[in-house]
Automatic annotation (TrEMBL):
Full protein name: FAD-binding oxidoreductase
Superkingdom of source: Bacteria
Family affiliation: Belongs to the oxygen-dependent FAD-linked oxidoreductase family.
Cofactor annotation: FAD
All copies of domain FAD-binding PCMH-type, residue ranges: 48-218
PROSITE patterns referenced in this protein's UniProt entry, alphabetically: FAD_PCMH, OX2_COVAL_FAD
InterPro entries for the chain: FAD-bd_PCMH (IPR016166), FAD-bd_PCMH-like_sf (IPR036318), FAD-bd_PCMH_sub1 (IPR016167), FAD-bd_PCMH_sub2 (IPR016169), FAD-linked_Oxidoreductase (IPR050416), Oxid_FAD_bind_N (IPR006094), Oxy_OxRdtase_FAD_BS (IPR006093)
Pfam families in UniProt: FAD_binding_4 (PF01565)
Keywords per UniProt: FAD, Flavoprotein, Oxidoreductase
Amino acid sequence: MPAEQGAPLTVATEQAMADELRSWLRGEVIDRGHPRYDEARAVWNGLIDRRPALVARCAGTADVVQAVRVAREYRPAVSIRGGGHQVAGSAVCDDGLVIDLSRMKGVHVDPAARTARAQAGVTWGELDAETQLFGLATPGGEISATGIAGLTLGGGFGFVMRTFGLSCDSVRSLEIVTADGVVRTVSREEEPELFWAARGGGRGLGVVTSFEFGLHRLGPEVAGVLALHPYERAEEVMRAWRDATYTAPDTVTPELLLWSVPADPAIPQELHRSNCVMIGAVYGGPTGDGAVSALAPQRELGPPLVDLSGTLPYVALQSANTWRFPDGERYFMKSHFADELSDEAIRTLVDWYSRRPTPESLIVVRTLGGAVARVGPEDSAFAYRSARYNVSIDAGWRDPALDETAIGWARSAWDAMKPFSSGGTYVNFAGLGEDAGELRGAVFGPHEERLERTRAVYDPEGLFAMAARRP
């Protein structure tokens, strides 16, 4: 047995682990010689190329318990995979054990209680499909292929967060297998400290196997703004948009992107892939005159190239951008929280966007506040509720030869925005594994020490220490 957790495993030890896992698990155990090994180790971000010793594809919570027990016995490096859509690719580790929950897809909606119980392998698109049958939703991510687990455990930005809060704010309880192999259901009433930590600081606490979400009346149709403005007016539009966010009601969640015009049939072909300022906003309530009135300031920012505002199904909204972030392409994202967006900050963003290395790269400014800020600062481990904005520098590319250029652009743009940051980085947009040391303290801010104490209680031997250290 290795002397310490994460030490390289011998061939004999890998085989012993595989044999033991296969003797207990209902799910599949994939080793290096398995014909689907490369498929099993692949994640959404094609930049990530890690080679685990074993992948334990769990069929249910009992399998997770056995995988944790085997990990405790052999002490390999351990990573946990939900949807596998995280930028840093922390779902997979080199030469260790991946506890893979991606086949755990159960969803049960209770429309009377307005709750949904979903297993950790479910994606937001899959959850939305079930909840929208009843005109209900819980605030989720902006890409339907994203897993519910990683996004929620890190906080969870989404299109209606100013109305309903972060994804973690709608969690009523969760099931987690801790390092001792115990299955715990945690909530505000049961093991409240672990519940606090999991909502926004949920890395390295154990293996979360399911979530119970509270649901909100929303859909099946929602009202939104999508207006594309000429890039030549970028600074003017961004200043007007910033000013409009100051008075936006909590029912509106505004968003601004510096990006390329999508190749959408509804948009004239001659505009496709040209630079633009993209204004988006969603109304978190019924469609109708109230929604139109509340969204109007987001549309009145000067004459657009194209205005696609209107109503659409909530499930279509949630999946609208998924095709622009396909599996296997290469991604790097890093963000700042900011209390203001000064004219100088806007000029800096426009300048750095003009240097972007590929048409797939973009800059996103999301507006917080509203329901996000109404949750008390000590109510969950998410540390930056008072920030007005999150600014994310997102590099995307296909050619591995551009790795250094694309990542270098994103890092340099992020550095250039430091003077305008209020401090802190959103854990779900925090770079790659090598950024962890630089960002220590910035991701969880004033909650870092409390999180460390909680992890020490539930994982005193550091079984999940690697997961705790990674973005």
